Amino acid sequence: MHRTGELYGHFETLEQQRESASLGMWIFLITEVMFFGGIFLAYTVNRHANPVAFAMGSNTLDLKLGAFNTGVLLASSFTMAMAVWAGHTGKQKLITLFLILTLLLGGIFLGVKTVEYAAKFEHHLVPGSSFHIPAEDVSAAAAKADPDFAAHAQLFFSLYFGMTGLHALHMVVGAGLLIWLIRQSMQGRFTAKYNTPVEMVGLYWHFVDIVWIYLFPLLYLIDRRHK
Amino acid sequence: MSATESRPAEQFPEKHYLNADYGIRSWLLTTDHKRIALLYLVSVTFFFFIGGIFAGMIRLHLLTPKGALVSPEVYNRLFTMHGVAMIFFFLIPAIPAVLGNFFMPLMIGAKDLAFPKINLLSWYLYMIGGGLALFSFMSGGLDTGWTFYTPLSSVYSNSAVAPAVLGIFINGFSSILTGLNFLVTVHTMRAPGMTWFRLPMFVWANYATSIIMILGTPVVATTLALAGMERLFHLGFFNPQLGGDPVLFQHLFWFYSHPAVYIMILPAMGVISEIIPTFSRKPLFGYKVMAAASLAIAVIGFLVWAHHMFVAGQSTYAALAFSFLTMLVAVPSAIKTFNWTATMYRGSISFETPMIYAFGFLGLFLVGGLTGLFLGTLGVDIHVHDTYFIVAHFHYIMVGGAVMGYMGGLHYWWPKISGRMYPDTLARFSAVVLFIGFNLTFFPQFLMGYAGMPRRYHSYPPEFQVLNILSTAGATVLAVGYILPIIYLLWSLRYGPVAGRNPWPSTGLEWQTDSPPPTENFHVTPTVTWEAYDFENRPDLGLDKPLKTDDSGRGHD
């Protein structure tokens, strides 16, 4: 597979190559929707079946950190969109700048996530042999409504770690892609004529953001008690 | 092959994709879709024989009512490993990744798939997945059934479940990337003049298959990942003791694994749609309806999954809806079967090897499809659920349908792949052996299943012994039908007569280039000016009496 400039030999034109990459990325995102769809379904079914335990689980999550992270990701989507715009208009320095900003915001998100995970470890809310629910959370009413309260609470945290972990893994992959883009961008590879990689990584980054937009209300906001 | 003899003999091309480069690196790092297809050919054949050995041991064991060969525990592992090897590592990749990979770009006039490197990555993912499955087989095996039902797979099984689940998870991404590659290729890589309704039916079939691959496979990946985490970290997604729901696993599993049956059968239908017009010298009857039927099967196939769970405790109303939808998915399959027979009606039929496989496909798929309707009927399903009736049914679809299609396609395109002909008489004989051996193996299983013999049992009441002996005898005949082609196809690589560009002859674009094709597929990018399967306006094919179809399906001289 030989390459002339930016054009791979099995394509006839750059336009055909760009169209293929774009369609391929969209199809990949469809597979990602289905991939997350399975675990979202598992969450929805179990939340519906065990409302009491899942409400308790939601209330242990830190609303302020979750909301902050939502803001961080939305801001990173904005900077990513700006990087794509800079690509289209051929402003090479701005591409690099906005990509670095996006990477920084992604890093902040993952850092906050680590703080949240650490708190769960401290409070013995990680599923496994040391899983333990504080006595004040298992009120008499809760125990009456759900005899398997502890098991169902553990199920909530299994799904919490499963869903946010999978999302964080996608963020890490996205960060890797950003680093790769930044290196190429600093060498001036992206121009107004050729910026497909920036656009494709942009699509991926927005998708990962949208997953969080669904995760945040599903995990943090439903059945929230005001304190 | 009168058509071949009437035309001037052709020379074997000097430069082609097989001798373009030498050495192990030129194969393992190739991005040529034709070479990757051959890598797949070798690896799926390997897994076919692994699965076949397990099948042979199962049949040997069932020769006597108490079981002749292995302990009950080992028997559980044998049928599980047979299913895992055959379904995930042979049937699902076989036609798309071997024949589809090789011929989709050739059939649409492209130089390669849209993403050649991703194509190679697919093969490596397949090999890693397959390697993990083999590791599981060798470290004690697997006894959960290929369905991995929880909580057996996630809690109670004492076998090597984790590596097999990881292997199937990784292999799923191979399938997803193949589907993605095919979809983009059909959209963006078609040669000038190759409009959507000029695409050969094999391309339509693989397009429909790819839709299932990209929508279904991610779901089974999530499901198996959850079951795997449940096993490794003692979580409880599907374990009732920990608050989970095992029926949820079954829903998620079958959401992929029922459409997966269409991943196996749709490409085989595509192959049959190529073979039948070629050897009837007549256009495919109802081209647009055939294309639409492929897509309809892909779509409706997603709405029938819970017919695997009629006795799993789902609501009666859900069962009624799924029973109805199961009847519905039979409609496009029936349309296809009628259109194939209508294509042959008053055609100029000849009985070359691929056509014999196509006839075999028609007969076996018909039986498999119709018994599927029995099983989709709620009352009948309760009687025959988990008996040998269902084992016979899905083998008629998956072996009788998909493998017959695969063998037919391999024989149809072998002259293009290798540039040489195989011995036709021996090949026809082998196809007939396969048909007889298949029926002898699996028809008795309908009878024993209807009489009540359960599947997956290592022993059975003595009154079933005669039927079991028939089935085992059939399996040996079947084995001959699979081993013979390996021998004569390998023989033909060196000693077979030169095939020439278009030996049958056939209308598709893939037959316009050299056999074997050059690395870039066509010396000059072709421009398509003819409709699919149009024998009438193709003097270059050298046919004496080209036939065309009118609306009644009749051929005209």
What labels describe this entry?
heterodimer; A: 227 residues; mainly alpha; Four Helix Bundle (Hemerythrin (Met), subunit A); 2 strands; 77% helix; 2% strand; B: 557 residues; Cytochrome C Oxidase, Chain A; 65% helix; disordered N terminus
Summarize this structure briefly.
The complex is a heterodimer of chains A (227) and B (557). With 227 residues, chain A is mainly alpha-helical.
Q: How far is the first residue's CA from the last residue's CA of chain B?
A: 20 Å
Task: Provide the succession of SSEs of chain B.
Answer: HHHHHHHHHHHHHHHHEE
Q: Helix coverage percent of residues of chain A?
A: over 70%
CATH topology of chain B: Cytochrome C Oxidase, Chain A
Based on DSSP secondary structure assignment, what is the total number of beta strands of chain A? 2
Total domains of chain A: 1
Largest interface: A-B, 39 and 41 residues
Q: Extract low-pLDDT stretches of chain B.
A: 1-6
User: What's the oligomerization state?
Assistant: heterodimer
Strand content of chain A: under 5%
Domain tally of chain B: 1
Give helix % range of chain B.
Answer: 55-70%
**How many strands appear in the DSSP assignment of chain B?**
2
The first-level CATH class of chain A is given as Mainly Alpha
